[in-house]
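Recall that a protein's primary structure is simply its ordered list of amino acids. Everything else, from secondary elements to tertiary packing, is in principle encoded there. The following example makes that idea concrete.
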Amino acid sequence: YNREDNLSYIRGTGKSDKEGFYTAALWLHGCHPKTLACNLDSLSNFGYLKDFPEILYRILKGFEIRRIQKSEWMQRKNGVHKPSGGRGRAPFSVETSRFSYRGRGMGRGKGRGGRNKKPAATRELRIANAERRNQAEKAKASLDRKMEKISMGKKAFTRYSHDPDYRFLHERVSDLFANYLRRDLEFLTSGETNKISLAAKWCPSLDSSFDKATLLCESIAKKVFPRESFPEYDGVEEAHYAYRVRDRLRKEVLVPLRKNLQLPEVYMGARDWGSLPYNRVASVAMKSYKEIFLNHDAERFQKYLDDAKSGKTKLAAGAVLPHEIIGELDGGDGGQVAELQWKRMVDDLKKKGSLTNCIAISDVSGSMAGTPMEVSVALGLLVSELSEEPWRGKLITFSENPELQSVEGDDLRSKTEFVRTIRWGMNTDFQKVFDLILRVAVEGRLKAEEMIKRVFAFSDMEFDQASVSSHGWETDYQAIARKYREKGYGDVVPEIVFWNLRDSRSTPVLGNQKGVALVSGFSKNLIKMFLDNDGEIDPMKIMEAVISGAEYSKLVVID
């Protein structure tokens, strides 16, 4: 590969693999820092502006910081607390607990019958003591936060002062946001609000974790309100100047622009539920906030959902992945948002060019527990709904004796429950899968153009492990091709897209094996990628086709 292609691969293919991008971006910063910094404007056209504060944050806090934070959050959620000295404390301690366990046959206090029980304190004294403890804890927590903020600020300033590569990237990120925000203010003033970008949405809020850790808001504010352009800052000391422009960034830039963007967080923060425009809520925000909307604005939000069901309005689904949608079926809204987002996603993919004549093999075996199971069910169901007749609404079981199953159910919930309970085995026989497809085609007297073009196999296994055959794929494929030729379908032998849903470093299928391609990850954009690739599946050609777009030509290698 040449260096420009490698830079394109780092940007990615719309695979919703943000962690992969962050890993590659941090590598690029370490090895080619100017290339990363000088391509920010082009990179922003592929993804989110929020990627860049995140990169700065991870450079300062360490690449593993998000994994560590998630682990700590899970511990707190599950009631596992840090030892003394860490943040937070156990809900009960020897000194503060007001209750003791009383099992069968146990009395109150120290011994049976409550002997030697200490006299209870008066209610007023208990309340006063509890209030003093609460105040002391609040004061300590406030002091801890202030010290942590000072510590993060010092770390960011030290890194900025002593690391020229980091300083260059920091300046380019703040330049990018400042340029967008200045331009957006001009659009707001001129009334061209449809041209306003999402820079105000993704710009760190003042005193947010991003701001405290990177000091990015101060850098952006100084570029939006530079001293040389505002005479009122002449002679003002640096610290006061920084304070004033930060405040102006919030009041004069972020607040009006975010209000114009009609971001739900603006209305939620102001508790202005009656004005919240639900039709402007992005898909990820809708997934996150739907239960809050129901709690605070049930009547209006339910009417919006009813209008979406009847087609009077639309509900966003673009940034939510299929498995994320079905994961919300048990939400507090009864799965209404999930049902609507699924319908919107299917409709949008059909408009792009549906997966005509494709079918899925969904592995729902015990080893798939967790995310792989959700992805296998979701993508299998998605492929079945995008396929054309006679394959629409059908999938093939992952079994030594595969069967063609019609998906049962009237709604998304019942369909996913059905897919989870279909028969499964420890592996599957791909020869029998092809035999099954051929038998349906022959019995239905299908034309060549109606034959299955692609078989998507969703599993957590390697390709060679998933097959019961001992002959190897090349031998199997020759036998399959012979059978199809004998029945008049020699030119339309289906291809296998083997979709490995587990994180694996091995290479189960070589890139040049005929009729088969390996895919990893789980994004609907990857499915669309295969639609445009006529004939033979060649992983290298697919990759080259993806990065051949005009937007990739803007990326340049600097160092």
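The radius of gyration is 29 Å. Residues 3-65+162-261 form one domain.
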